[in-house]
Amino acid sequence: MIPISVSSTFTQAAPGDHKGYEYARSGNPTRAALETCLAAIEGGERGLAFASGLAATTAVFQALLEPGDEVIAAADLYGGTFRLLERVFKPWGLKAKYTDDSSYAGFAALVTPKTKLVWIETPTNPLLQILDIAAIADVAKKAGALLAVDNTFASPYLQQPIALGADIVVHSTTKYLGGHSDVVGGAVVGGKVLLDPVKFFQNAGGAVPGPFDCYLTLRGIKTMAVRMDRHCSNAGDLAEWLTAQPQVAKVYYPGLPSHRGRAIAARQMKSFGGMISLQLHGGAEAARRFLTRTRLFSLAESLGGVESLVNHPATMTHASIPKAIREARGVDDGLIRLSVGIEDVDDLRADLLAALQ
């Protein structure tokens, strides 16, 4: 068991001669254990832990980019990332460009000499599109840019972006890595030299997790494989069942035969994940009724915990995206997102059926 080192400061042998740690913002034994673990499970040389997923994302943008640089991203992405790009880093001088075509050609078409970073999620949040990591890594490499993959929806158990050509992997460790909805955190994993500026920013900016947060994340990682198998199994069963329900207009799940990214997902993922999105006949009003009638699926922000959650992206995770942009991307007021937990699948199915009727 990794001990929880709660000291905020550490004694030194002589002035400027510390014994490995000097101040907890700069380093802590429990955090070091987590960072070593994060690097190992993602196949990277270095892992860095942050106080949240957005703190990790901020560190990548701030430490590796400069005003005037361009970032390319898929149009379907987490609302918090969009908010950072548009409301924090755009005034700073960073330009973000978004593609509705998430193929190799779609990303390649946006490349300019100023492109320094390609940022992707796969599966995407919330429409669960699948992006070909290896192909987009090739786009980035030819452009002389870095590829960063937000691997939060997949987890390191299901997908290894660095092995597929990514330079950087980012996580909200709050989600599947922590796995119990009791800790908030983030991570950046990549090459040691590449992440030197991110390491500097981690200390200079100070958005680091406390030792107990690191301990809880390490605890969650121990059971990640077992949990992910159950998340995937339950989600696959429910997605297939939902497609047969007359109240359901559309189901978004990479494991369905009808999903256009299924072949890519099968190639680059171990399984298809624990997230489902859906549209109901009846639009926003039908969605609102559904969202207030589930009992096992709790209406809440976040995802990836052992308990099942239901989410309304338009008013929750993606509320920061202007309505016109959000709806143009397919995230309308009728979209529902499910984070399928590890409960008994028959109980979850019964809960969804009751909410649909």
TrEMBL record:
Gene3D superfamilies associated with the record: Aspartate Aminotransferase, domain 1, Type I PLP-dependent aspartate aminotransferase-like (Major domain)
Source taxon at top rank: Bacteria
Keyword annotations: Lyase, Pyridoxal phosphate
CDD domains (UniProt xref): CGS_like
Cofactors required: pyridoxal 5'-phosphate
Molecular-function GO terms, alphabetical: cystathionine gamma-lyase activity; cystathionine gamma-synthase activity; pyridoxal phosphate binding
One GO process term, biological-process aspect: cysteine biosynthetic process via cystathionine
Residues annotated with N6-(pyridoxal phosphate)lysine modification: 175
InterPro entries to which the protein is assigned, alphabetical: Cys/Met-Metab_PyrdxlP-dep_enz, Cys_met_metab_PP, PyrdxlP-dep_Trfase, PyrdxlP-dep_Trfase_major, PyrdxlP-dep_Trfase_small
Alphabetical list of Pfam families matching this protein: Cys_Met_Meta_PP
Gene Ontology CC annotations of this record: cytoplasm
Family classification: Belongs to the trans-sulfuration enzymes family.
Protein name, entry field: Cystathionine gamma-lyase
